[in-house]
Amino acid sequence: MKNVLILGGTGFVGRHLCEKLHRQGWRITVPTRRLANAAAVQHLPRVTVVQADVHDPAQLSSLVKGHDAVVNLVAILHGDEAAFERAHVNLPRTLAHACLDSGVRRLLHISALGASIDGPSRYLRSKARGEEVLRGNGLDLTILRPSVIFGAGDRFLNLFAKLQASAPLVPLAGAHAKFQPVWVEDVAQAVVNSLLDARRPDQGQVFDCVGPTVYTLADLVRLAGRLSGHPRPVLPLPVALGYLMAWLMELGPGEPMMSRDNLASMSVDNVASGQWPGLQALGIRPAELASVAPDYLGERGPRSHLLRHRSMRRPSKK
Predict the structure, then answer these.
(1) Alpha-carbon distance 137 to 97, whole Å?
(2) CATH number of 3-153+182-211+271-287
(3) Mapping DSSP to helix (H, G, I), strand (E, B) and coil, where does residue 292 land?
(4) Portion of the chain with pLDDT greater than 90, in percent
(5) DSSP assignments along 75-97, one per residue
(6) pTM (2 d.p.)
(7) I want to staple 231 with a disulfide (CB 3.0 to 4.6 A). Which of 54, 117, 157, 225 is the partner?
């Protein structure tokens, strides 16, 4: 039985990854600053939840010791330059040092599709710098670069579905931006398959994690509305008006639905580059968004009673 430390294990991808590795018999350590955040994984018998601050070098070094592998899922979508630097650059740098000091060679890092040192946004530039600080350290490093991730409980399609349930139309910045959405289960399985591969990975090997179909943002909003039973007209906004709307969202309380940095990221297509292998190289046939999304977005629409009836008739798994 192997031991893995998962940074960001309480998040969207982390919850699915913990379940998959648990079924494979791995012992899993999940650090979190607040124990309440780990409610979705702490019921798994082979998951140990530890209250800790992974940004503290001493605490991180202590966490890494005794594990066979480390998975880093920590990421943010909103923040200033310092916040992106802390999450996407400083943490990977500190993690690399902790791994080397503890003799832990295997590290799997989740980056982002389109990460580039000269990218148009703080998000993409910081993600690229995070990759750079991990390379050349002698670690057995694998980097996964997912496009936007969808699945039950996501904060992407669900957000658009919720918006259309209460709005007569959807003013949309970045409507023509392109994405290649990938299912959360496929991303989690990519991590599992990579960890289970006994072959020593090349230092810094990269995989693009994308689904089989390219969509515009407007396509995705319309799909979310139709599947949730609340289709609304989509009104594409000019670039300047889109940035104004994003700025106003940033001024509001809580995390904005869209920021100016998000819009900057969307100025480049979020699709596979062809430079790196995809999920197929990890033994995964990526799922179609259109075949998965109805199972969770449809529960809000006119099919909801049928889906509930179907779920009640599913045989239990033993």
Answers:
(1) 9
(2) 3.40.50.720
(3) helix
(4) 84
(5) --SS--HHHHHIIIIIHHHHHHH
(6) 0.90
(7) 225
Instruction: Judge contact between 266 and 176, C-beta under 8 A.
Output: no
DSSP SS3 for 98: helix
Q: What angle do CA 259, 264, 268 make, to 5 degrees?
A: 140
SS3 helix, strand, coil % of the chain, rounded to 5?
A: 45, 15, 40
Domain borders along the chain are: 3-153+182-211+271-287
DSSP 202: P
Q: Give one word for 104, left, alpha or beta, with left for phi > 0 and alpha for psi -120 to 50.
A: beta
Token readout for 4 is 């893995």
- Residue 200 clears pLDDT 80, i.e. is over it: no
Q: CA dihedral defined by 210, 150, 283, 100, rounded to 10 degrees?
A: 90
224 vs 293: CA distance, rounded Å: 8
Kindly give, in sequence order, each residue whose CB lies less than 8 Å from that of residue 205, ignoring residues fewer than 6 positions away: 141, 142, 143
Residue 67 pLDDT level (bands cut at 50, 70, 90): very high
Alpha carbon 157 to its chain's center: 14
Residue (of 94, 96, 89, 91) closest to 128 by Cα position: 89
pLDDT of residue 276: 87
Q: What is the pLDDT of residue 318?
A: 37
More confident residue, 307 or 2: 2
Q: Which two tokens stand for residue 2?
A: 């192997």
**pLDDT of 307 above 60:** no
Q: Phi and psi of 9, rounded to 5°?
A: -70, -10
At 201, the pLDDT band (50, 70, 90 cuts) reads low
Residue labelled with tokens 């650059």? 89
